[in-house]
Amino acid sequence: MLVQVLRRLAVFVLSLVAASVLVFAFMAVLPGDPAQIALGVSATPESVAATRAAFGTDRPLVVQYAGWVSGLPVGDFGSSYVSRTAIGPQILDRVQVTLWLVLCATALALVLALPLGVLAAARHRSASGAVVSGVSQLGIAVPSFLAGILLVTVFAVRLGVLPSGGWVPPAQNPGEFVRHLVLPVVALGVVQAAVLTRYVRSAVLDVLREDYVRTARAKGLGPLRALARHGFRNAAIPVVTVLALQVATLLIGAVVVERVFVIPGLGSLLLDGTANRDLLLVQGVVMVLVVAVLLVNLLVDLLYTVIDPRLRAG
Amino acid sequence: MSTAPDSQPAAQPAPVLGARGPAGRRRATAGLLIGAVLVGLVVLTALVSFVWTPYDPLQVDSTARLLGPSGEHLLGTDKFGRDTVSQLMLGARTTLFVGFIAVGLAAVVGIPLGVFASMSTSWLGAAVMRANDLLLAFPALLLAIMFGAVFGASTLTAMVAIGIATIPAFARIARSGALQVLSTEYVLAARAAGRRRVGIAVRHVLPNISGLLIVQASVSFAIAVLAEAALSFLGFGTRPPTPSWGRMLQESQEFLYLTPRLALVPGIAIAVAVLGFNLLGDGLRDRFDPKLEDR
Amino acid sequence: MTVQQHLRKADPRDHRGANRDVVLTVDGLDVATRRLPLLTDVSFRLTRGERVGLIGESGSGKSLTALALMGLLPEGVHAEGSVRLAGADHDLVGASEKQMSWVRGRRMSMVFQEPMTALNPVMRVGKQVEEGMLLHRTQDSRPAARAAALDLLARVRLPDPASAARAYPHQLSGGQRQRVMLAMALANDPEVLVCDEPTTALDVTVQAQMLELILEASVERDAAMLFITHDLPVVATVCQRLLVMYGGRIVESGTVEQVLTRPRHPYTRGLLAASDLELVDEAGRLRTIPGTVPAAGQFPDGCVFRNRCDHEVDRCTTFPPWAGQQEHGFACWNPTGEDVRA
Question: Which domain holds residue B44?
Fold first, then answer.
């Protein structure tokens, strides 16, 4: 058990290193000199060299990489070549916004998808089950930014009951915070719920056909109790797998939804960074997103061993 | 063949449990049919756009801005007076083109990698799958934004990014399918007979996993359509003036109060394409693997 | 105590069950999907303490019979006819889930064929054994149920019951898991025990121990047992009476001795010949029943066996009426051996 956890942690760290090399190398292939770009074409060679030294881009790539990556664990992402300000605090600021969005959307997706998926599986031969399946199939076809636009059209533009965008920090005004959060969270969460519902349904359907559920019923448990006591934990294994993929999708989906709702999260930071060709900033945000995805995968793998005793052996 | 009584401890009512109920089969076939029709609709639209559109989709007409649906412009016009139907038709072309290249790239790279990983006994096979797992941490949109940042956003960067991000899906499905085929008796026999690995891969493995791969292609196509739309929406995909559904949506945003139709039309087009490819994939999966009933 | 001692203890004088209490009466049980008949007119009785074997090839409907008795038929499969349990004031066919929940695991329980998949992989074995007792309130508290579960695990001779109770199913061998299954089935001292090929999935060396346990359990509790198997030697050791099933119908019944030594139905004779490794045909090959069991719904009209039967006559195009009594009889127009029909 302990050996397994340690091995999994080692894989996680290796993945982090590999991902950071990939991200760094990718950004480093860009033609052009950041110092030259920052100063413009009229700069003197001396000032360019000085700026280069200030940026640290005159050092060999390996040294630059080592400098960049060693700062990451303590939240030091370097200073922007464009705005000349530290990147770390900006990212930290934006992460909180995106985290609210993603966590609330995940919660909403779970709250909707778990009961609906179970219902669709338990009644898969009846009309109600078919309706849930059909609606979830439709929901998957609607990208979250489209859902966002439609929600804004109805609730902000037509009915005027909710703001069409923007962001109010929770500490500043909790009520307004919630009002601004509702539409983006619904846009992200409902679409994810549609995907998740299908997986929950299929996992529960699989479990319902398992021999041990029949054994439970042979003991005298009613169909729902047999499912609840013996089915859910087994069905959780594939659902958790999908949920991990979903959180990754949500993180990236948030980038687009933040654009729709003009929310100052990681996504808008990333897009602004690309627009300004602020590569070190882009590099930092991409790294944060990739680390988040890897972290979710790690958590899920550890969660497996909690759920399934068969994975604890060895 | 004659049988000694009960030589196998098979579940007795197997024919009943294994068979899909008539209702389930009907629904699966209906899904396949609807999916094929929707995909066919999109493909047909794209094909027709090569020879005919109601108007030149790029023709700007300042006298015909933001018109409502009429006999002249069936779905109205946008802020530049361009005909929405014509834009939509060319958008279908963009969508299919990006999806086709992206899925093709993913299949061409992913399938050999997966089959190789399934047959390889050396560290290389394991390394391929590890790299594959790492790639999963870079979703399509993120890759496309990175590509856009470095090379400048274009249809090409979008296609390549979506394609690369889709490689792991193909590699995984090819590997797990190939592992199954490789454990079958006839492949063991072929190996025992001294057939080379490449020969086995081409003669036995690929034909037997083609069903799985076609299903994966259809599902990946749906994801690619979504990704392309999102990228165009963000400005990281197809550049103006080439019409694309995602950018039509993005351009519609400032007129949500005036003409929500401008958002609705490309939105419905995206949903139709995604739904079509998803239903097609699910329907084909039921066809190829009757054990997986109605899901 | 050995099997033989047990058999002696359970006096075989009344093994036809004529003068003992009837526990379970199955009458005209039909099972079908919407399109296909799967079981037709299955009728038999189990008396207290009686051990009845249900034999036949794969696909003849044995397991389906067991599931129908328990009310656990797969979706889309329906039963008609009558299954009465003594002391229950309702027919088990068409009973509500609530009524069946009360019967299942309390008055009738079942041991399934596959010990590898029949236990919940993510729940400790002890808990799975306790569950049925707490559910039916035969033990009124957690600690009492835990103690009872340990006792049951000891009685099915699991070495170290305490650690077995803490184990997850994957940590036990197939034979050990099947013992757990048996402990679960016996937890509430049921009156009817249905065993669906309980030893088929086990190693040969473990099979004999398992059979002995099952036999001991049913004798100790005086429980009626329906024992499903395709293994004729097993049937001969465990059972007193036999039902031979083919094509979803019971085609012959009688005591073990009657059926195994004087089979009347050509199918029964075929089964016996096929299991006799000394019996060979003119060419020196082992005897088999020609052809294979058709898929459900593909059996011929009239006698279900006639397409594989070497005794077929014209009348076989209609299904033969039952000849003899329910306890000893057969359904064949042209039986082998002496003809009680004349």
Answer: 24-50+96-292
Strand extents, DSSP E, C71-116: 78-85, 108-111
Identify any residues that bridge with B3 across adjacent strands, giving them in sequence order.
C289
Q: CB of B200 within 8 A of CB of B186? A: no
Which CATH number is B199's domain given? Answer: 1.10.3720.10
Residue A313 placed within a domain: no
Contact call for residues C187 and C133 (beta carbons, < 8 A): yes
**A-B C-beta contacts closer than 8 Å:** 123
Domains contained in chain B, number = 1
Q: How confident is the model at residue C15 (pLDDT cuts 50, 70, 90)?
A: very low
Q: In this structure, is residue B16 part of a structural domain? A: no
Instruction: Report the C-alpha gap between B267 and B253 in whole angstroms.
Output: 12
With contacts defined as CB-CB under 8 Å, which chain C residues touch A305?
Answer: none
Q: What is the tally of structural domains in chain A?
A: 2
pLDDT in tens, C302-329: 888 888 888 888 888 888 888 888 888 8
Shared domain check, A166 and A58:
no
Residue in A145, A242, A271 to test binding to B, most B beta-carbons within 10 Å? A145
The CATH number of whichever domain residue A103 belongs to comes to 1.10.3720.10
Q: Is residue A50 part of a domain?
A: yes
ipTM computed for the complex: 0.84
In which residue are the tokens 């390394």 written? Answer: B127
Q: Nearest 5°: phi and psi at C253?
A: -145, 160
The label of the residue with tokens 């300042």 reads B62
Please say whether the beta carbons of C114 and A212 come within 8 A: no
Rg, chain A, Cα only? 24
Rounding to the nearest 10 degrees, give the CA dihedral for residues C61, C64, C66, C68.
-130
Run of H or E including B73 = none
Nearest by CB to residue A219, choosing from C76, C105, C117, is C105
Look at residues B238, B236, B180 and name the one whose alpha carbon lies nearest to residue B211.
Answer: B180
Q: Is the C-alpha dihedral spanning C330, C335, C338, C339 positive or negative?
A: positive
Lookup: tokens for B249? 């949506």
HEC string of C286-299 equals ECCECCCCCCCCCC
**Which DSSP category does B20 fall into?**
P
Take residue C285 and report the two structure tokens written for it. 């090959």
Q: Is residue A103 part of a domain?
A: yes
| Range with the poorest average pLDDT among A174-188, B234-248, C171-185 | B234-248
Domain that holds residue A27: 2-74
Do A90 and A285 touch, CB atoms closer than 8 A? no
CA distance A114 to chain C (A): 20
My answer on whether A26 and A70 are in the same domain is yes
- E strands present in B20-137: none
At the topology level, CATH places domain C1-107+190-342 in Rossmann fold (3.40.50)
Q: Give the residue on A whose Cα is nearest the Cα of B138.
A: A290
Numbered ranges of CATH 3.40.50.300 in chain C: 1-107+190-342
Interchain CB contact of C201 with B (< 8 Å) = yes
CB atoms within 10 A of CB B194: 7
Please state, in angstroms and as integers, the Cα–Cα distance from residue C72 to each residue in A289, B143, C179, C249, following that order. Answer: 49, 52, 22, 19
The DSSP bridge pattern shows strands C51-55 and C241-246 to be parallel
Does residue B264 form part of some domain?
yes
| pLDDT at residue B5 tops 60 | no
Instruction: Please report whether residue B91 resides in a domain.
Output: no
Q: Which helix (H) or strand (E) holds C201?
A: none
